[in-house]
Amino acid sequence: MLLSAEIAGFSNPSHYLLANRALIRVRLKYLALAVKDVEESLRVQSSSIGHVAMAVALLGQGDREGALCAFDLAFHDCELHDNRFLLLLKVREVT
Predict the structure, then answer these.
(1) Positive or negative torsion for Cα 9, 13, 17, 22
(2) How many CA atoms are closer than 13 Å to the CA of 79, on its beta-carbon side?
(3) Is the CB of residue 71 less than 8 Å from the CB of residue 41?
(4) Can you tell me the distance from the alpha carbon of 47 to that of 34, in angstroms, rounded to the nearest whole number?
(5) Domains delineated in the chain
(6) In whole angstroms, what is the distance from residue 90 CA to residue 45 CA?
(7) What are the pLDDT digits (tens) for 14-62?
(8) What is the model's pTM?
(9) Helix 48-60 and helix 15-27: axis angle, to 10°?
(10) What DSSP line would sit under 23-77, residue for residue?
């Protein structure tokens, strides 16, 4: 609720805030709203957190192939220091 209020307070919310709210909505099983937040986040700025949030939301909807594609896109937008974290997630996904 606080994150939604913070986002509503901005005319142009941060891609990071939108992606984080999407992850929270996935956890709460509000998958359609999560996908909407991620799409807006990626429209504002393409980012690794946006693609990871999309992958998690798609996985929650049962779209494993779409989730894998979105997760792979995260590698294209990641910073060098994010790469290790993404590789750990990828290893976890395979096992």
Answers:
(1) positive
(2) 3
(3) no
(4) 16
(5) 2-94 (1.25.40.10)
(6) 23
(7) 888 899 899 999 999 999 999 999 999 999 998 888 998 999 999 999 9
(8) 0.75
(9) 20
(10) HHHHHTT-HHHHHHHHHHHHHH---HHHHHHHHHHHHHTT-HHHHHHHHHHHHHH
